[in-house]
Request: fold
Amino acid sequence: MDFSLSEEQQLLKDSVQRFVRDEYELESRRKLVASDIGYSEDNWAKMAELGWLALPLPEEYGGIGGGAVETMVLMEEFGRGLVVEPYMSSIVIGGGFLMAGGSKEQKTELLPKLAAGEMKLAFAYAERQSRFDLNDVECKAEKNGDGYSLSGHKGVVFHAATADKIIVSARTSGGSRDADGITLFLIDNNSAGLSRRDYPTVDGLRASELEMDGVAGTPLGEVGGGAALMEEVVGQAIAAICAEAVGCMDVLQETTNEYLKTRVQFGVPLSKFQVLQHRMVDMFMECEQARSMCYMVNLKIGDEDATERAKAVSAAKVQIGNSGRYVGQQSVQLHGGMGMTDELHVGHYFKRLTMIDTMFGNKDHHLKRYADL
Amino acid sequence: MDLAFSDDDLAFREEVRSFIAEKLPADIAESVRQGRPVDKPDIQRWQRILFNQGWAAPGWPVEYGGTGWDATRRYIFDEVMAEFDTPETVPFGLLMVGPLIYTFGTEAQKERFLPKILTGEEWWCQGYSEPGSGSDLASLQTKAVLDGDHYVVNGTKTWNSMAHLADWTFTLVRTSNEGKQQEGISFLLIDMETPGIDPQPIIAIDGAHHFNMTYYTDVRVPVENRIGEENKGWTYAKYLLGHERQSISEVGASKQRLRRLKQIAGEERSDGESLMDDKSFANKVADVEVKLTSHEYLNLRFLAEEAAGRPIGAEVSLLKIRGTEIRQELTELTIEALGYYAAPFEMEQLSDGWNEPSIGPDYAAAQMPQYLFSRAATIYGGSNEIQRNIIAKMVLGL
Amino acid sequence: MDMQFRDEDLAFQAEVRQFIAENLPADLREKVRRGLHLDKEDFVFWQKKLNERGWFAPHWPVQLGGVEWSPTQHYLFQNEQVEGYCPPVIPFGVRMVAPVIFTFGSDEQKQRFLPDILDSTAWWCQGYSEPGSGSDLASLQTKAVRDGDDYIVNGTKTWTTLAQFADWIFCLVRTSGEGKPQEGISFLLIDMKSPGIEVTPIITIDGSHEVNSVFFTDVRVPAENLIGVENEGWTYAKFLLLFERSNSLTGGLKQQLHRLRTIADQECTNGAPLSSDPAFAAQLADYEVQLRTYEFLELRTLGNSNPGAEASYLKIIGTDLQQLASELTLRAVGYYGNPYIRDALVHGYNQPSVGPDYAAPAAPQYFNYRKTAIYAGSNEIQRNILSKAVLGM
Reply:
């Protein structure tokens, strides 16, 4: 048992830290969020150059072959910087699906482009009625000659506007909430029959509503076997987003601690009030617990036992949800009015943590899933 | 001990109900139903309707334009207001400075200010906090120096809600540095049009402009605009904080929020059913409903005490603490109910002229800003930590 | 970064398991499993068994009877004990006073006291808290005045766990009123048979006799029983508190969860097992997630050389979980949390149980466990420690 980073992992951490320090000062991020596409293509190119886009992808397809722990190291630092580039959508999830379900041809064609930053992916799974159930799918895919034709609505698809291709879950058979009969498809973003409505999200990212009417799609992975594929890749995404959350929480904890020591009221720093000290300790303990579960899930995500893996994923997501909520809300509270302003970064971390709980199912959803496993 | 309403009370309730049903403008009700911000002209329109009926300020004494209702009727009125999608009362004039003026003001001040508060013609904002004086309000530094029959005011006020919409502000200023900090503070009413006042927006985490930082440079304020005695401002401020706490018990508004939450959860789907059929979600809604009920009865007990002529002390802090916590719970559950549709965030959707179809369900857009802004509720009006300090000291004698 | 136990750790775990299987009598195991009261003999029996195997004092230096285990092995050993329903080791001798003796004591003291601790012939208790000195331990007033070769001790100690069985007590006493309160405290070992010592029981809210008041009236204690230097006792006490807090709770928590699950499977609601009620199942899952978090939090701290801060937050979170599990258990047994028949908690009770047999200890344990957030430095004190030591507030 060993929870320390290897030398390579430490180097990776240092280099992401440098990037965040140099490129992600709050004002720069504010500009990115307000820009046309909502992030920086220059940053994306830099990430390609530094090998981060290739990090989790296999060596035989132009990747570096890193594991969950490497992604975790990177995502934690991204969390500290509130990085808005579509790493999660494109590399963790998009790359994850290609690796887990892609055919030899798909891998050969797409993975090197992904690693080089020449192509981006997004993942469309949520529907109006689905809530957090990945298998609640009403979008239909019908056989159409050699290919498939997709119709239906997909909601809150992160980073769809800037993706070249979108991975879409659609039903090839079965009832609307059956696990069987879901297939994943690759569609082109400029396909005929696809209309998109793009918008910003509350935590500074971009998302879209997709309307599909006879969009041509190529299956990714086994026809009808999409559910298992989604469970696997979304599990990896959850492990990664837990690390992002840990990075956010640490920043909030450090900043709030610092604020309490400098803000003077009643003639003394706020840090001298016991009730605030204890609140701060509780925030600290939440951070430590979140970090523990983040390590746990990233070390177990490769476990052979599917139930053990799923339990690790859900347990971690619950803990992250609870800790993120507490740390986020209390950071705002302890900063007083300043915590409520757009000017301070506290509110931005709080919003990101709030939305991280929603991503891939909130704490209630995962608690229920954990209880059922 | 008696909870029953008399026949007269019941008849009164019907009267209020039919009045609101008839007079509440549909467009305003729709904004409230969706949780969208109601803008100033709409609030003024609704207040004018209440004013014409003589109901603009139920809590005020009859001689100043109040209703003369007893505690039961005021409760029934609030209750019925909450049954409908009526906009929340903007507190600064009607609930805060108004009562202060008729309690401590001169006859001239009463005549000058109260009628326009009642009609909604003049809007007020509060000038208390300063950059260095938040929880420790008594340390405030904005100076007012007497020069003939004027005070010359210099300093900075912050977190002034709606200052950009206000015609007048009521402020605490320092008129003396002698003795304890609390003893050198005076209470001034200042015309926002006076030269030298400069409100600057502070954008909040929901992206909206609620707050302002207001700069005062050599602002001349007639002495006649001082409330009560010089250097006694802290006494009036404390009186007013008591009033504010009661107004932010928010029972009515939280009932509206609970109703909205249930509607939304009823529409959202989970496992092929309504989210309200999801047991663990329904339990959480039930849990907060129970809290709201106990909060309501706490409020009623305080009302009854007041009605019986027994003044409420520092216990009102309880109302502020519970009221704001319940509000936060309700807004948080509401965004939880939305699932992924809590994420889309287009400010334009909240403005009146928005013509495009909504992203996701039409009730979604307003909820995240409501949640984010509700985080301020445990901070303003004396943070909940300060309220707990007050209870520990004044009620529990710790 | 990895989370695998090494092969030798797993082999060790199997060895411990086998030892327990071969040496723990079924009836004793059952008593522990059901949460019944244990007698002094029960504790002593198991401690002697462990000692025969050389495992009673694993954290002692090897030359004194300890074992050279890795932190992981200590962790595994503690948790196997608990998961195997072994009687808990009473910590006052072996885990608390012994490290003080072998770290700060004289050679004579080591020779005199350590062997009796090792073979469980001497039962120790702890004399720290006083009626006026709880969280503010340093304010203690029990006086020890030097008189020739003896100290004469006067005062009152309280919350003294299992003092009714004890042969010896280690005490913090005031030997000087000068300087800071911490600077006038000494650490004394006192024979419980000394004239002038009186032990009176304190019955706790669960009806059990676990703690006592100990009154000292002109008790003569040979000066050779002073640990280290006079007025330096606070240093030794702080050293010891660290040991007290660094006990792993994971195994015990898992056991509580296991008991709770068994009960929730057997209790019924709406014609189905309580464990399948969505609301209760969610609470169970929530508890299990928290426990898992605690476990990984603890695993992360294994091998840290300075367990100060970690010990504090593990204590807070662990005891919160102990309380939560006992509360869920009480809720799970429903109305059968009400009957309270004291004898039903003692092994050998012959009457049929009122309601299900698992119900009787539920309420007493819930009430008893309120102590966990209070003792060994209340959780409020732990937060003070953390805010100062870790957050620099």
